Each structure stands twice: as structure tokens, then as C-alpha cells.
From TrEMBL:
InterPro entries: Aldose_1/G6P_1-epimerase, Gal_mutarotase_sf_dom, GH-type_carb-bd. PANTHER family: APOSPORY-ASSOCIATED PROTEIN C-RELATED (PTHR11122), GLUCOSE-6-PHOSPHATE 1-EPIMERASE (PTHR11122:SF13). Pfam families: Aldose_epim. This is Galactose mutarotase. CDD domains: Aldose_epim_Slr1438. It comes from the Bacteria. Transmembrane segments: none annotated. It comes from Cyanobium gracile UHCC 0139.
Length: 287
């Protein structure tokens, strides 16, 4: 894989597979954000470059990283035995600078976020969050590793992890999603819902969560391709989000629902001195 550092005013690095020509663009200083994924000569991700150019605005596009929570907590506060800590929606990982390096096997790129002065007021744990991004034939594999660097006897590190990829689509009105269960949970009403009803409203804007039942296939007939999310436990919940009129649909793997660190539902814990790995994979096919 060939690595090209940022040029000019752009903070983005570019990683290219010389065999296939597939490529990733990454902005490590902007939350370890994957801003582009070129596969088979086509860009798979939606990315609002104009919005990205204004650091005061939240990013719309690419693959933001959600850590140490997905969604929000009551009162935007993480309550622990150590006290109460302010923690905004989706956590802080997408807002902090990461480091970047090629993977040792030469098959991709690694991103790394460590605890520090910017994270500790919100999350009082010594941690390392590492992402490995691997370009595979017609696919992108993502592995995350969370390590608890606290001393022996320290409280376990609680977390949820999610990815928020914006998949570009040519015509949202014709998009199909295959592989979702019949029932879901609507984040807009915070109530159970029927998945088919949500899919009927993609053009109006939806935000719902489904329990994992295997791969979820996004079929975009107008764009001539399908993108499939292959989730893996424990990051096997699937969130679907649309934000019309943007030509995209988010197909997101989450490890826990909103409020997980408060309710305990699907909350993940890493003992001091240990690590936990999570992952998923996206594949692309022509129609």
C-alpha cells in the first residue's frame, strides 16, 4: 500500500492499494475521520467537503467514530463511582486528534487515540483506542481495539463503540435495505416501531436501531451498486439514518444502544490491563 501525506492546506492522508487502485483518505487530526473510500474506481462514501472546511461545524460525511458512547446519556452526563462527568452525544473520539501509521503488514492504515487532558474531564480512564483499516478486494475491513491502561485494581473501563459511515446513494427514493428484522426502535420518538414503516420514510428522514441478525444490504439501483454491512458481535446492532436532501444513507454498526453506559444494557467493560477487540466489514458489488 502506498502512503501519501497531506499536501497544501488539506489535512487528509491518502492510502492506495497498488494492485487494485482502491484507496482511503483519512484526516487523523479531525477525529481519525475516514473522509473517502474509493473502490473499483467509484467513491463509496458521501462527504460534505464545504462543511468539513469549517471546524466549527459538525462533520457530515465519511466515517466518524463514536466512543465511548453511542447516542447520548441522560443530562449528557456519565455517572460513575468516581463522580459525574459531562459527555456529549456520541462521545469525544470524533473531535480529538489521532495519530496515524501504516499497518505492520502493509495491508492498511492504523489510527490511534490515547487518553489525555482533553478526554479525562469527560472520561476518567487511561485508555488507548486503535483502529485498523484494511482494504480488501471490493471490501473495507475495520477492527477496533480498546485497551485499559489503568493500574491493577482500577475500575473496569465501560464503553460503547460505533461507526457512522455515510454511504453515498444516487436516488434515496429507490434505495432498498435487505436483512433488517421486522421490528426496530425509533430514535426520533424513542419508541418501538415497525421497520417497514421506517424504510418507507427514508426520504423524509429516519433514525432507527435494529438488533443484529446478520448482514444488511443497501441496494442503490440508480447508482448501480450494493453496499453490505457485515456486523460482528459485540458491535452487531445496526442504526439506519437519513438526512434528506443529502444523497446518502448511514448504515452504522453499534455495540450498545443509546444510554447504554447509564442503563447497563449491552455495556462493555474492559478490566484494567486488558484489551477488547470489535470489528465489522463493508463489501461492494455492482448490480
Amino acid at each position: 500500500m502506498t502512503l501519501h501525506p497531506p499536501t497544501g492546506d488539506s489535512p487528509r492522508w491518502r492510502f492506495t492499494d497498488p494492485a487494485s487502485g482502491d484507496a482511503l483518505t483519512v484526516a487523523p487530526e479531525r477525529g481519525g475521520l475516514v473522509t473517502g473510500w474509493s473502490c473499483g474506481g467509484e467513491e463509496i462514501l458521501y462527504f460534505d467537503a464545504e462543511r468539513f472546511a469549517d471546524p466549527a461545524k459538525s462533520v457530515r460525511g465519511g466515517i466518524p467514530v463514536l466512543f465511548p458512547i453511542c447516542g447520548n446519556l441522560p443530562g449528557d452526563a456519565l455517572v460513575l463511582s468516581q463522580g459525574s462527568f459531562p459527555l456529549a452525544q456520541h462521545g469525544f473520539a470524533r473531535d480529538l486528534p489521532w495519530s496515524i501509521a501504516p499497518l505492520a503488514d502493509g495491508r492498511g492504515v492504523g489510527l490511534r487515540l490515547e487518553d489525555g487532558p482533553q478526554s479525562r474531564p469527560h472520561f476518567p480512564f487511561a485508555f488507548v483506542l486503535e483502529l485498523e483499516l484494511r482494504l480488501q478486494p471490493s471490501a473495507l475491513a475495520i477492527t477496533a481495539r480498546i485497551s485499559h491502561r489503568g493500574e491493577a485494581g482500577a475500575d473496569p473501563l465501560p464503553f460503547s463503540l460505533g461507526l457512522h459511515p455515510y454511504i453515498a446513494v444516487a436516488d434515496l427514493s429507490r434505495v432498498r435495505l435487505e436483512g433488517l428484522p421486522a421490528d426496530c426502535f425509533d430514535h426520533l420518538t424513542m419508541a418501538p416501531a415497525i421497520t417497514a414503516d421506517q424504510l418507507f420514510r427514508l426520504e423524509q428522514g429516519v433514525d432507527f436501531l435494529c438488533s443484529g441478525q446478520g448482514p444488511v444490504r443497501l441496494v442503490d439501483p440508480a447508482g448501480g451498486r450494493a453496499v453490505t454491512l457485515h456486523p460482528a458481535a459485540p458491535m452487531d446492532l445496526v442504526v439506519v439514518w437519513s438526512d434528506p436532501p443529502r444523497p446518502m444513507l448511514c448504515l452504522e454498526p453499534w455495540s450498545g444502544p443509546r444510554g447504554s453506559l447509564s442503563t447497563g444494557e449491552r455495556r462493555l467493560l474492559v478490566p484494567a490491563g486488558e484489551s477488547m477487540e470489535l470489528g465489522c466489514r463493508y463489501t461492494v458489488e455492482s448490480l
